[in-house]
Design brief:
- Keywords: Leucine-rich repeat, Ubl conjugation pathway.
- It holds the Pfam family F-box-like.
- InterPro entries: F-box-like_dom_sf (IPR036047), F-box_dom (IPR001810), FBXL15_LRR (IPR057207), Leu-rich_rpt (IPR001611), Leu-rich_rpt_Cys-con_subtyp (IPR006553), LRR_dom_sf (IPR032675).
- The chain is of the alpha/beta class.
- Strand 11, helix 14 and strand 12 form a beta-alpha-beta unit.
- Helix 5 runs parallel beside helix 6 and helix 21 runs parallel beside helix 22.
- The termini are far apart.
Length: about 650
């Protein structure tokens, strides 16, 4: 080849498709989408089968969605979330298109916020021959009349299509009755997961109790315990997960379900079941010892007796939520933390928990203690530095998510311990920890009587290349003493920069933080979600620094930060190309100019909260901005 001057041009060889696929495997989905626009070969690489697994497309019902559905017909597998469907012709056409284009390819279908007719759904379901998950939560319009699937020919058609359905979500249905429940579940003989959260289930009152078997009739108004037990009994060989959250289930009713012969549940959710007692949990543990995931949060009658029962009976437990169980104390937590399979523990809003027993449980034999990767101590106001320091030392190799929101007694010492020992953290929440200051984030220690001012630690700016100093009690886990704490105060600790794997960080309502620490510490290339709301001392300098150093941000909260102005937005917006959610509520120095800048630079923005911004008109700004916000993909403005 020669150019116009007669000189030879060396053609650049094209990379093999496999190499481009490998390169794109390091990109996030949104970046891979942008990369697919480079050229045809990059587009083909982005459509590789490895990138197309478990894809879920979410969109509202609209005329433009018809073309999207036709385009999805080229994919081998997909899942859909279609919002705001109704009984009008456009929604009917949309569902018909889903059946025609995706009938044998659709694996999951959810219809939140919809109000569709029985005829519309019955025209679709027989075509969905590969469906594995069906979400009908809140679709009262289907069940209100009580005639859903009343005709045998309809049930036969649906049964043929949904025989492979594994997961059925019937949450928040006010009009679910014995009749409609039996008809629908008779079409799904192999269920593995069933959700009835928030449904009106008659656990106590059974008008047919004591009647001969032939005289019992199904109710057209309520779902009864009798029919729930019938389903569980019939599908006991496949059913492994059940969600009865926010129902009025009683201790006797729970025992009835748990005692079904040959039923082996792996997951049970009972969030907000306020009538359950310690005795009911003891019975549950006795009859379902194979439970791996248990949610008994907001069951306000439960005490530490339930914790002890769980610790003694569920030796395969991996996830446990005790959130908002206000009567739970420290008792039993040490034994619970000796369950070696436990990976996730939620103790948020357990007001009597101080962490002492958790530490004791973790100081046992390494092979016989929980290896937690997720721990929530939100609103546990008795948690202090002593407990946090011990936990960070004991969980340093495994913990990936830590929530200390509203732990008001946590100070800079805890922050230094987190930065020193938990350098594998992915999620850290410290919101409303009002004693945290710049000193803690920067890894400094303060000498009250020193004349030379603050001192840097040896590992300030630690990006993971240097290990934190080894302490004498690091060799073998043991209970930490006050002497150990005092020794740690004299050692050099890492700054928060050491947590270079962070993807979510919440520092909201820590009023003592200023630009001094935010501009120096928040430098995380993989950070996705950041909350700096209610920090009165930060200014545009913090916003500009965050935007420059954290370019992967998809969600940024700066609500009620009076120091943030148009100038900061102008400096930050060019670097926030991935931003999808921005919260600026109550930022009094933000004006229309910021809206222009955001629209020009943040083309992925979906949510923009500018409520209580007194310098932005209530009508959404000038006509040009209003027109832009009403474009093809408008952000949601609050």
């Amino acid at each position: 080849m020669e150019d116009c001057n007669g000189e030879d041009i060396i053609a650049t060889p094209e990379l093999p498709l496999e190499i481009i696929v490998y390169i794109q495997s390091f990109l996030h989905a949104s970046d891979r989408k942008d990369a697919s626009l480079v050229c045809r070969s990059w587009y083909y690489a982005s459509q590789d089968f490895h990138f197309q697994k478990n894809l879920t497309f979410s969109f509202p019902a609209s005329a433009s969605s018809l073309e999207l559905i036709k385009g999805l017909g080229r994919k081998s597998r997909c899942s859909l979330i279609i919002k705001q469907l109704d009984g009008f012709s456009m929604s009917r056409s949309l569902l018909l298109e889903v059946g025609l284009c995706l009938g044998s390819k659709l694996e999951s279908l959810a219809l939140p916020g919809s109000s569709i007719t029985e005829a519309s759904l019955l025209s679709l379901l027989p075509r969905l021959t590969s469906l594995r998950r069906l979400d009908l939560r809140g679709l009262d319009s289907l069940f209100m009349s009580g005639a859903f699937l009343s005709r045998e020919e309809h049930r036969h058609q649906v049964r043929s299509a949904l025989s492979g359905l594994e997961e059925l979500d019937l949450s928040d249905l006010r009009y679910l009755s014995d009749l409609t429940f039996n008809r629908l579940t008779s079409c799904t003989p192999g269920l593995r997961r069933l959700s009835l959260a928030g449904c009106h289930i008659a656990f106590e009152f059974d008008p047919y109790r004591g009647c001969p078997a032939g005289a019992v009739k199904d109710s057209s108004a309520l779902l009864s315990l009798r029919n729930l037990k019938r389903l569980v009994t019939e599908q006991r060989w496949t059913l492994v997960a059940l969600d009865l959250s926010r129902t009025s289930i009683t201790p006797d009713s729970l025992r009835t379900v748990a005692q079904v012969q040959d039923l082996v549940l792996e997951e049970l959710r009972l969030h907000g079941c306020k009538e359950l007692t310690d005795y009911s949990i003891e019975v549950l543990v006795k009859h379902q010892p194979s439970l791996q995931r248990l949610d008994i949060s907001a069951c306000t009658e439960l005490t530490s007796r339930s914790v002890e029962a769980v610790a003694q009976g569920l030796k395969a437990l991996t996830q446990l939520s005790l959130s908002r169980d206000w009567r739970i104390t420290e008792k039993g937590l040490a034994e619970l933390l000796s369950v070696s399979s436990l990976r996730s523990l939620d103790l948020s809003e357990c007001l009597h928990v101080s962490g002492t027993e958790i530490v004791k449980g973790l100081t046992g034999c390494t092979t016989a203690r929980a290896q937690l990767d997720t721990l929530s101590l939100k609103s546990c106001t008795y948690i202090r530095d002593f407990a946090v320091f011990s936990l960070t030392q004991l969980l340093g190799n495994t913990l990936r998510e830590l929530d200390l929101t509203l732990c008001v007694n946590v100070t800079d010492l805890s922050v230094r311990a987190i930065a020193t020992y938990l350098q594998g953290l992915v999620v850290l929440r410290l919101g409303l920890c009002k004693e945290i200051t710049d000193w803690g984030l920067l890894g400094w220690w303060k000498q009250p009587n020193a004349d030379k001012g603050p001192r840097f630690t040896r590992t300030f700016g630690n990006m993971g290349f240097f290990k934190p100093p080894r302490l004498p009690f690091e060799e073998k886990p043991k209970l930490v003493t006050q002497n150990d704490l005092q020794q740690f105060k004299q050692q050099a600790g890492a700054s928060l920069l050491a947590l270079n794997r962070l993807q979510e960080l919440d520092l909201s309502a820590c009023p003592k933080l200023t630009d001094s620490s935010i501009t120096q510490v928040l430098r995380y290339p993989d950070l996705r979600r950041l909350s700096l709301s209610m920090l009165p001392e930060i200014t545009d300098a913090s916003l500009a620094s965050v935007a420059w150093h954290c370019r992967s941000l998809t969600s940024l909260a700066l609500s009620h930060c009076p120091g943030i102005s148009d100038r900061g937005v102008a400096q930050a917006a060019p670097y926030l190309h991935r931003l999808q959610h921005l919260y600026l509520s109550g930022c009094s120095n933000i004006t229309d100019r910021s809206l222009f800048l955001l629209l020009q630079n943040c083309d992925r923005l979906q949510t923009l909260d500018i409520s209580r911004c007194k310098n932005i008109p209530n009508n959404g700004g000038p006509p040009s901005i209003q027109a832009a916000l009403l474009g093809e993909c408008p952000p949601q403005i609050h």
